[in-house]
Amino acid sequence: MEDDQMFLYSQQSDANSYNQMVPTEGETKCRRRRKKNKVEKINEDIGFRKRKLTDEQVRLLELNFGNEHKLESDRKDRIAMELGLDPRQVAVWFQNRRVRWKTKKIEEEYSELKRAHDGVMVEKCHLQSEVSRLKEKLMEAEKQIQQLKERSVDHTSNLSMGSPSSSCFTVDGGDPMFMPDGFDNNFFYVPNGDINYIHGMEWVQDLYGSLQ
DNA sequence: TAGAATTGTCTATTACATCA
DNA sequence: ATGATGTAATAGACAATTCT
Prior knowledge:
212 residues, DNA-binding, mainly alpha, disordered N terminus
């Protein structure tokens, strides 16, 4: 029965039905909804039903498609002959197969992009939390620096009232400097003997600037 | 060389078969 | 019975190639 249907199909698929329909003059360019053509009407009249290709036919078509997605005329005729199909059927199968292949490829590319995007988003979250953590640390450091300055002012006023302090020293004959309790003096100590408080502040300012 | 015809491919859509 | 899905097939547009 299937062979009979194929025979009928081939009988109906005359050369005219393959030819490209050229739009007639004045015909609108927009797409119209397709109506049944002559061949379809004839097929309907004689009871022709669209049939699926056999597994073997599909297997061989897939094999050919795997080799080359495009279909030259000679190749189309040869495949059609081998499979007992109309060349037009082979061309249609290849066209639909290219569409499926392209759709699948787009889906795969989308999945890949989404995976990459998700990875970047996770990385972004990590970096944002790291920035928050560092900002908190910086604020804490600034608070401590402020406290140091305030104590410095207190010590200065105490000194002026004659209260000595072991944490007091001077830099190049400049203003007296004070270290807070528990603060390691060596933190600002430079081996060549140059004790430089200002350089220490610059380090903090640089750090702050890089986090802005 | 220009323009008509042909050919192949694409997108959009329809029609039909099959299955849950 | 029926809606969803897959796929064979068609229509129409367009570009490249061939023909006259």
